[in-house]
């Protein structure tokens, strides 16, 4: 068994593709595939599920992933102790649903990098199901998601609550409904509505809110940021967690406002997810500390 074989497997797990892993490592795809096959033969387990769409870590490989990561981190520490300047930089991969998360993630990343100037951070905008899968497969280290009352977190993931809030109507500042203290469901039904596309939490909430009687004029978009811009441009109204709008540049500029939904008692929680494991990697512990500190401000 060679360290480079473990490095190859970790790269394929990260990228979900032999080709992209080879490009990162500057190793040909056949050489990469052969090295991992030899590792599988030596360990007596199939580490990758190879498909036309790409390569993903197998169930057996998933069980071995943390020990492999531990070995690679130990090698990095050994190199650092020996003064080897070629030591790999620490990589932290964060997935986010992007609804209200930027105000927490960006300051936390800045603080994380201030403490370790060699750290490399990758932030990816994904849907919640994609974050769950990527965390389970080991291609993400941390995921930020929003949860409605009663939502369950997969048993192999651990959740750290960061913010709680309520779904709120998001309106252009000059809209007639902004003059009131609350907005009713019927108010929203009578307007052009900007919904999040299927797969987003607030798409599910909008269907729960309206039931079978949806607004007649229904637009859809990917993610809260585009939704807020569409509201600011007067294209329609939307519903988002209140914490995803408070402090937003469009709100600070006086272009959009929020109003509570009359009679709705739903609670939305932003949580950070990571894989359950005996020892949480120091990078995850550190970024969680920065996220919690930012959430308290």
From TrEMBL:
Transmembrane segments: none annotated. PROSITE patterns: HTH_LYSR (PS50931). The keyword Ion transport does not apply. It comes from the Bacteria. Residues 1-58 form the HTH lysR-type domain. Keywords: DNA-binding, Transcription, Transcription regulation. The keyword DNA-binding applies. SUPFAM superfamilies: Periplasmic binding protein-like II, Winged helix' DNA-binding domain. InterPro entries: LysR_HTH_N, LysR_subst-bd, WH-like_DNA-bd_sf, WH_DNA-bd_sf. Belongs to the LysR transcriptional regulatory family. PANTHER family: HTH-TYPE TRANSCRIPTIONAL REGULATOR CYNR, TRANSCRIPTIONAL DUAL REGULATOR HCAR-RELATED. This is LysR family transcriptional regulator. It comes from Dactylosporangium maewongense.
